Amino acid sequence: MIDSYRTIQSKSEGTYSELRSKFLAFAFPVSTEEEVKTLVAAHTKKYYDARHVCYAYMLGHERLVFRANDNGEPSGTAGKPILGQINSNELTDILIIVVRYFGGVKLGTSGLIQAYKAAAAEAIAAATIVEKTVDEQITVAFEYTLMNQVMRVVKEVEPAILSQTFDNDCQMTLAIRASVMPILHDRLAKIEGLRFV
Question: Which of 102, 79, 81, 95 has the alpha carbon at shortest distance from 18?
Answer without folding.
Answer: 102
